[in-house]
Amino acid sequence: MKLLVIGSGGREHALAWKLAQSERVETVFVAPGNAGTAIEPKLKNVALTAYADLIDFCKKENIAFTVVGPEAPLAAGVVNDFREQGLKIFGPTQYSAQLESSKDYAKAFMSKYGIPTAQYQTFENAKAAHDYVNQKGAPIVIKADGLAAGKGVIVALTSDEAHAAIDDMLLGNKMGNAGARVVIEDFLQGEEASFIVMADGENVLPMATSQDHKRLLDNDQGSNTGGMGAYSPAPVVTQAVYERVMNEIILPTIKGMQSEGHPFSGFLYAGLMIDKNGAPYTIEFNCRFGDPETQPIMSRLNTDLVGLVEAAIDGKLNEVSAQWNPQTAVGVVLATENYPETPKKGDVISGLDEADQIGKVFHAGTSVNAQNQIITNGGRVLCVVGLGDGVAAAKAKAYAALEKISFDGMQYRKDIADKAVNR
User: Which residues form the ATP-grasp domain (predicted)?
Assistant: First the structure.
């Protein structure tokens, strides 16, 4: 069979790589893909992005099913377009994708269905937003309502930071349309974790737990990014926490979307804050696999992903299960100079083959220049994954692999997975 993965990042490289491991798969096309998906066995890039072109391609190539990687096509309704043409595709509809594409929608949904989350209010008027911050004090969290590629959340530790974020979004148009409305919510304390499931509208199949590192610099300092590394499993998600997340967050969300008349099919990602008592709160929903969580999670999946996606598309997730490698996977993101503000592009990357001998290198912001060299082409360039018996061993392998890689201005965190090591 032939499959299609939509997207060009590290998440898409990892999903396509895992799908291609199935003996039933002849080719996984990646649209548009990156320099890594161009050279991976059984993967082939397709220079298409328009949905009409992708639909024509799927019909012409007799694609068995499509998996959507990033959030933007989901928010734009790509799943609706494909289904209208009778094509199999895994991902939520445009309505259901509002759980990610509108922070205000997500918060109102959680409030309606009693899903634990921070208290909040939504504002379009800057003065009203400033008044609210003055009333609540800091720390406080300011979020752009719409999609902002992981950069629309400001955790303001002081009132001045909160007021500056409001001005940037509502008056300075820093986030464009995404920041035309802001959600202001209480600051939650605890440890973050990522809880991702596959859903078929009614049934869910949990993926392995993971933890993401959002801040740019070591010790969770610096600006928020799309994610600087991740590891799986996440020790903070104990069996007791796992059961609470399923019963208090995941299942009520799936039942709630059914009640809304829009059953949720696709990857559902709950970004969690787990407090000192083990109580989980929802920081955010994503309607797709996380990046960089996908890379370590897919590195641990022993089950054929093709069969899982087929079961999800057919509404039969209750008939399948996922087996996981008991080893830990740690993924470290290598980013360009000036990421996340103004990432530098076009620098030649060396040492990729040597790194791949030690760990697994997933490409994200990469392309090929006229001299056939792999170059940087985005803020987050690569994610290097190491597998090992325990967190410390997996971390050591990931960092040993990434030390083989170099490009101008390369930056990365040196403390990925340390929270788990310290546990």
Answer: 107-314
